[in-house]
Amino acid sequence: MIDFSLTEEQKALVETARRFTKERIIPVAAECDREGRFPMEVFKEAWDVGLLNPTCPEAYGGAGLGELENTLITEELGYGCTGIQTSLLVNTLPLTPIKLAGTEEQKKKYLGMLTSEPITASYATSEPDAGSDVAGLKTRFRKVGDDYVLNGQKAWITNATYARFFVIFATVDPALKHKGIGAFIVDKDTPGLRVGKKEDKLGQRASDTAQVFLDDVVVPKANLLAPEGQGFKLAMETFNQTRPDIAASAAGLMRRCIDECVAYAKERKTFGTAIANHQLIQWMIAEMGIRCEATRLLYMKAAYNLDNGVRDPIISSYAKAYGADSAMTTAVDAVQIFGGNGYVKEYPVEKLMRDAKVLQIYEGTSQIQRLVIAKQMLA
Ligand SMILES: Cc1cc2nc3c(=O)[nH]c(=O)nc-3n(C[C@H](O)[C@H](O)[C@H](O)COP(=O)(O)OP(=O)(O)OC[C@H]3O[C@@H](n4cnc5c(N)ncnc54)[C@H](O)[C@@H]3O)c2cc1C
User: 140 falls in which pLDDT band (50, 70, 90)?
Assistant: First the structure.
């Protein structure tokens, strides 16, 4: 039996997230974008109302919600600003591998940290020379006595400037590729760990992105998350569980494009009539609706699978690839519908177009999603 209706609890959650977006995110989104400012006050308020770390289990102080609830929240916050939404919800990235592979002590300590105060954490696979090619990462670890010592450099790390801890992937030997990779939880204050300059980005400028340098960083045995040979698998499973969130973010961004375009098309007149009456404008708006709803169905199916133990990672990649590409196309069309007004910062759609682009890049580019999908189809 298929049922797309939400439970009363899920509807209430969506309502809370929608109200928060309207009252707290939309009013500051343009300013955070302009100034490239991390929305710390919004982050704290979202923590207060219980919108952060939704998938953290109850045993560690979280709400213990499923991936479906997580994606529903993501779509709502993404409607307001995908940059702010990323800042608020990217904790899911470091939280997921700890949930999947952490010891009881690690879960108590680090998931407990996320739920006992409004803090951020980061997840780091990418490096200056290894983004798509995760197995090609070069940050090294070696065992010294009971500890591990990490050396290397991470790039593009979301929330790194503010992170209290990092989940860091490293290898015993780059020549071993995926067989050499392990993962560690590293506290921000560990000597030798330094966060580099913040990137000045095209879009999602309210989210923080920075490099992380590791210079003889000593990590105690207790913080080993995945031993040599297990880290790559853990990174891939994490992406399987978090890629539906990108699709949900894309759906939020598309829904915003639709609302802005519908309102504008009814107001703006050319040739003596509202542009909403021109069929070529109607076509673009209709296509936006199709793409948004198809993305929503895909992220819901991916979330359903994850919540019900159905292992089918191809759906997460379908959702991520289709959602991200659809968001980009939709945002470009939104600028087109606004004409010259679409090209200036007085109107909201140029930001939507800048924000959409990175959905096709992070957590596996659109090209990498096709590789992952084709590999499974041709297996
Ligand atoms: C704003 C932002 C936030 C990010 N946050 C994080 C984070 O928190 N943690 C983290 O670890 N990383 C993060 N990343 C990194 C992100 O995951 C990588 O940028 C992404 O995986 C692409 O890697 P790359 O930049 O090295 O591009 P490359 O891997 O160099 O790719 C360049 C181009 O080549 C294409 N390409 C690569 N290989 C193939 C292939 N085999 N076949 C066809 N095409 C191919 C790619 O699709 C892309 O178009 C973030 C990036 C950005 C921009």
Answer: very high
Using one digit for the tens of pLDDT, what is the confidence trace for 239-280? 999 999 999 999 999 999 999 999 999 999 999 999 999 999
Convert 35-72 to b/e letters by CB count within 10 Å (16 or more is b).
ebbbbeebbebbbeeebbbbbbeeebbbbebbbbbbbb
- 354 Cα–ligand 1 center, Å: 17
Residue 3's CB: how many other CB atoms inside 10 A? Answer: 6
Cα–ligand 1 centroid distance for 59 (angstroms): 35
Average pLDDT, the chain: 97
Q: How far apart are CA 117 and CA 295, in angstroms?
A: 33
Angle at 14 between CA 8 and CA 16, to 5 degrees: 105
pTM metric for this prediction: 0.98
Angle at 301 between CA 296 and CA 303, to 5 degrees: 95
As a whole number, mean pLDDT of residues 215-234 equals 98
Ligand 1 centroid, distance to 182 Cα (angstroms) = 20
Sign for the CA dihedral angle at 258, 315, 63, 47 comes to: negative
Task: Name 114's Cβ contacts closer than 8 Å, sequence gap at least 6.
Answer: 52, 53, 56, 62, 91, 95, 121
Angle at 161 between CA 159 and CA 84, to 5 degrees: 35
Locate the ligand 1 atom nearest the alpha carbon of residue 361 and give its number: 20
What is d(CA 171, CA 176) in angstroms, rounded to the nearest whole number? 8
Q: Is 123 in the pocket of ligand 1 (CB under 6 A)?
A: yes
Q: Minimal CA–CA distance to 219: which of 175, 187, 266, 197?
A: 187
pLDDT at 3: 85
* Helices 92-101, 231-267: inter-axial angle, 10-degree rounding: 150
d(CA 252, CA 255): 5
**Per residue in 62-82, pLDDT tens?**
999 999 999 999 999 999 999
Give the separation between CA 213 and CA 320, rounded to whole angstroms. Answer: 29
Asked whether residue 1 carries a pLDDT value surpassing 80, the answer given is no
Ligand 1 atom nearest to 204, measured from its CA: 1
Which residue owns the Cα nearest ligand 1 atom 26? 131
Each residue's pLDDT tens digit, 343-354:
999 999 999 999
Clarify whether 363 is annotated catalytic.
yes
The answer to whether 310 and 318 have CB atoms below 8 angstroms apart is no
